């Protein structure tokens, strides 16, 4: 089954990490995979463009089915392998509603993180302004406080949609992992810190941990003052 799957991915990319966590949770180890380098622009190679005309990672294929958008790939894997591995969509309407809500809010969370940590990557040198970066940082702080309040309401030891690990955790944890990699203070955001510590020990997360983070575990300090 997994042998019919191919994943082209980049280390440290939250969208790639989402799909890798989902594959682990659905017990689909042993899929074909190839690690590509963003620095060498390998995501724009013909190998990727043949499957993903946007030239982005992840690029994912199951048999003849191509699902490159990370959220779509996670939904697809849960739908096609419902009875295998972890059940990632809860049956209860309240938990399911919260799961969907947090999943799609997770896209805004990821966007606001990127606007700060990759500001210099996205914005050409002549167009950068300290005031714009300051605004981006303020927007990220507002977003972090929101997620902190969500976790506060759910109580200690909870996942994003309640007592069960769901697709919300699959897609949002890579953003949380990246926040702490870039130096977010767990003292300033204790609930997010607690959530990070809970999930980083989960087998699917450990198995898919970005290899370059393992090679160089020292955290960056980009977000230390956020």
Automatic annotation (TrEMBL):
<protein>
    <recommendedName>
        <fullName>Glutathione S-transferase rho</fullName>
    </recommendedName>
</protein>
<dbReference type="InterPro" id="IPR004045">
    <property type="entry name" value="Glutathione_S-Trfase_N"/>
</dbReference>
<dbReference type="GO" id="GO:0016034">
    <property type="term" value="F:maleylacetoacetate isomerase activity"/>
</dbReference>
<dbReference type="GO" id="GO:0005739">
    <property type="term" value="C:mitochondrion"/>
</dbReference>
<dbReference type="GO" id="GO:0006749">
    <property type="term" value="P:glutathione metabolic process"/>
</dbReference>
<dbReference type="InterPro" id="IPR004046">
    <property type="entry name" value="GST_C"/>
</dbReference>
<dbReference type="InterPro" id="IPR036282">
    <property type="entry name" value="Glutathione-S-Trfase_C_sf"/>
</dbReference>
<dbReference type="InterPro" id="IPR040079">
    <property type="entry name" value="Glutathione_S-Trfase"/>
</dbReference>
<dbReference type="Pfam" id="PF13409">
    <property type="entry name" value="GST_N_2"/>
</dbReference>
<dbReference type="InterPro" id="IPR036249">
    <property type="entry name" value="Thioredoxin-like_sf"/>
</dbReference>
<feature type="domain" description="GST C-terminal">
    <location>
        <begin position="92"/>
        <end position="220"/>
    </location>
</feature>
<dbReference type="GO" id="GO:0004364">
    <property type="term" value="F:glutathione transferase activity"/>
</dbReference>
<feature type="domain" description="GST N-terminal">
    <location>
        <begin position="3"/>
        <end position="85"/>
    </location>
</feature>
<dbReference type="GO" id="GO:0006559">
    <property type="term" value="P:L-phenylalanine catabolic process"/>
</dbReference>
<dbReference type="InterPro" id="IPR010987">
    <property type="entry name" value="Glutathione-S-Trfase_C-like"/>
</dbReference>
<dbReference type="Pfam" id="PF14497">
    <property type="entry name" value="GST_C_3"/>
</dbReference>
């Amino acid at each position: 089954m997994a042998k019919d799957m191919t994943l082209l991915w980049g280390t440290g990319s939250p969208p790639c990490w989402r799909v890798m966590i989902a594959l682990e949770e659905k017990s689909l180890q042993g899929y074909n995979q190839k690690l590509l380098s963003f620095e060498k622009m390998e995501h724009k190679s013909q190998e990727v463009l043949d499957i993903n005309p946007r030239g982005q990672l992840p690029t994912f294929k199951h048999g003849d089915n191509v699902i490159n958008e990370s959220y779509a790939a996670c939904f697809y894997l849960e739908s096609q392998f419902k009875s295998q591995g972890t059940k990632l969509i809860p049956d209860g309407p309240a938990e399911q509603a919260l799961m969907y809500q947090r999943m799609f809010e997770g896209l805004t969370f990821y966007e606001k993180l990127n606007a700060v940590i990759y500001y210099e990557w996205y914005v050409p040198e002549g167009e950068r302004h300290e005031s714009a970066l300051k605004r981006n940082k303020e927007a990220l702080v507002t977003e972090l406080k929101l997620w902190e309040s969500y976790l506060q309401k759910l109580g200690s030891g909870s996942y994003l949609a309640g007592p069960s690990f769901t697709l919300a955790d699959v897609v949002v944890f890579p953003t949380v992992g990246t926040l702490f990699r870039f130096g977010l203070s767990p003292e300033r955001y204790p609930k997010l810190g607690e959530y990070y510590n809970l999930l980083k020990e989960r087998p699917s997360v450990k198995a898919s941990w970005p290899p370059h983070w393992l090679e160089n575990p020292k955290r960056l300090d980009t977000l230390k003052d956020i």
